[in-house]
């Protein structure tokens, strides 16, 4: 089995690299991946696949379909995200983005190319596994809100009959070719907020005549951190960050408003909601003391991503057998990033993992950076590991 997987990975790796570079050169934003979807469909049809359906009917983007062994067994899903980011690429590569202001700076081009290779390999290995593999090329992981996975769950077709879900992400901080797993909590949920402090404004020499939104906003930024330190159980994770704060246009004028925005990251969404209520109370009381008005907006985004412990343990051990224990890392700490694969993991036992792309003696590839780049030969690892875990898991049931 191991030798067969390696042989087929070698066969399809050149294709996967070609697909990755085409997708990289032609990036598209969430729910606008029309050319990407067309390209994926054409590649899959070239591999002999039929009955390809849109992942999101409303936008007609993304693709899903089944690879059926024609033997009874479970149905497992493997997902890759296909959307790009609103960034201008500055990476020095021959296959740079041709779409101004849009670029694959998070690795989704690699996820897509890897899954195209996985599908091709599984199609040649249908005699080697039981059950079905549902392949999902998902749009809009990066948004716009509420994101691609949410829309897929709302439409209700893609996850029908699925017993388990799998997916992966490139990992810029991870050693090249190593596979990283985390049991239980892996990615956090998020609640984003916007807050406006309002005043009538005035002259800086007469601060007693009007509320000072700059002072109030600055005080709130500091006080928000005390909410986390005082409300949070030290054994539970939470982060609150204010990312923007804008106000004023002159050094001697008390402005009429100050605007800020930020994000709350938690693994317990109920605790996140408690933080929101505390923020509201703090804003109300602070503005009341200093005589200001306020507006706020809160948006509850992707839920936390929780990996099924038994499933993750199984595929972790099978991955060690394939590539060696020294190349498989179990992470100790969860991450405060977010990932809409979490919607699938809420419904079926799931395993989401990471593939390291940081080569020794080279700069770390920072996701969402305009200079993000990585060596796509790592697709050989992601393809082989993915095929192996799917077959081994299907045959274990």
From TrEMBL:
The keyword Hydrolase applies. Its cofactor is Mn(2+). Mn(2+) binds at residues 106, 108, 142, 169, 368. One of its GO terms (molecular function) is N-acetyldiaminopimelate deacetylase activity. Keywords: Hydrolase, Manganese, Metal-binding. GO terms for biological process: diaminopimelate biosynthetic process. InterPro entries: Amidohydrolase (IPR017439), Bact_exopeptidase_dim_dom (IPR036264), Peptidase_M20 (IPR002933), Peptidase_M20_dimer (IPR011650). The Mn(2+) ion enhances activity. The keyword Hydrolase applies. NCBIfam families: amidohydrolases. This is M20 family metallopeptidase. It comes from Malacoplasma iowae 695.
